[in-house]
Amino acid sequence: MIKVLFFGPVVERIGKNALEVGYRPGMTLQELRDELALHYPQAFEIVCFFAVNGQHVRDLAMPLADNSEVTFMARFSGG
Amino acid sequence: MKAAVRIQQEDFSQDEEIAALKASSRRMGGIATFVGCARDFSEGRDVSEISFDAYGSMAVSEMNQLRSDAIAKFGLLDARIVHRICTVTAGDNIVFIAAGAEHRVAALEACRWMIDELKLRVPIWKKETTPQGETWVVAHP
After folding, report:
1. Domain harbouring B18, CATH code
2. Residue A60 reports pLDDT greater than 80
3. Residue B103 lies in a domain
4. Can you spell out the DSSP letters for B67-121?
5. Structural domain that includes position A54
6. DSSP 8-state code for residue A72
7. Which residue has the higher pLDDT, B44 or A47?
8. What is the domain extent for residue B74?
9. Mean pLDDT over residues B70-96, rounded?
10. With an 8 Å Cβ cutoff, is B111 touching chain A?
11. Is A79 inside any structural domain?
């Protein structure tokens, strides 16, 4: 199972702050992103950063491990 | 002593943070600080309050990395970063950054660099409440 987290403006567009997606061996971050973007296109319009297990990831071809924590994030606005 | 990098709901004391920074080294000859605080307007609209959301564990991890990077990049003796995650109104403190170095130039440049990098790297989001409703802030350069 992949745990997917959302924060701030992405939560507002998805309507929840977390969901779980079944793990498939070999699945990549890009595949997970595309799958979720089909269901939540308005949210993914503003997604521009990705994190896996709390670390920034820039390569969407990254394969995911089972039980990963994945976060799709809008541009930050702290400070 | 409180950790050098924190996210917290409550306000921070600049005096306590500076004292903690000074306590880390007697070679410190320059301390630069930045305090981000809440405004009552944004993009031409009145703002009654600002609230924050954060990916807490990642935010603290990124802030710790940011502090380490600043110490290495500018040769600092110490640095501290505190960000509040709560709801604030005009005048309330939001973020505190301090850089301590042997000389002023490194401290000033590092302080500016840390707040700029924080806005780029640290997963925190700001929502403003205005008469027109609530709006998530689009980051400024």
Report:
1. 3.90.1170.40
2. yes
3. yes
4. HHHHHHHHT-SEEEEEEE-SEE-TT-EEEEEEEEESSHHHHHHHHHHHHHHHHHH
5. 2-74
6. E
7. A47
8. 5-132
9. 98
10. no
11. no
The whole-number pLDDT of residue B30 equals 98
Does residue B140 register a pLDDT over 90? no
Tell me whether residues A77 and B95 touch, CB distance under 8 A. no
**How large is the ipTM?**
0.95
**CA torsion sign, A12 to A50 to A24 to A68?**
negative
Residues of A in contact with B54 (CB under 8 A): 7, 78
Cβ-Cβ contacts under 8 Å for B95 (sequence gap 6 or more): A78, A79, B34, B35, B36, B81, B82, B83, B84, B115, B118
B20 domain residue, yes or no:
yes
Nearest CA-CA partner of B97 in B39, B29, B12, B38: B12
**Model-level pTM?**
0.95
Q: Could you tell me the strand order of the sheet in which A69-74 lies?
A: A18-21, A2-5, A69-74, A47-52, A55-57
> Residue A32 burial (CB < 10 Å; 0-12/13-18/19+)?
buried
Report which DSSP code applies to B21.
H
**Residue of B57, B61, B126 lying closest to A78 (CB–CB):** B126
Tell whether B123 is covered by a domain.
Answer: yes
| pLDDT bucket at B139, cuts 50 / 70 / 90 | low
pLDDT at B141: 45
Mean per-residue pLDDT for B103-128? 98
Maximum alpha-carbon separation in chain B? 51
Q: Is residue A39 part of a domain?
A: yes
Measured between CB atoms, which of A51, A74, A79 is closest to B118? A79
**Beta carbons within 10 angstroms of residue B72's beta carbon:** 9
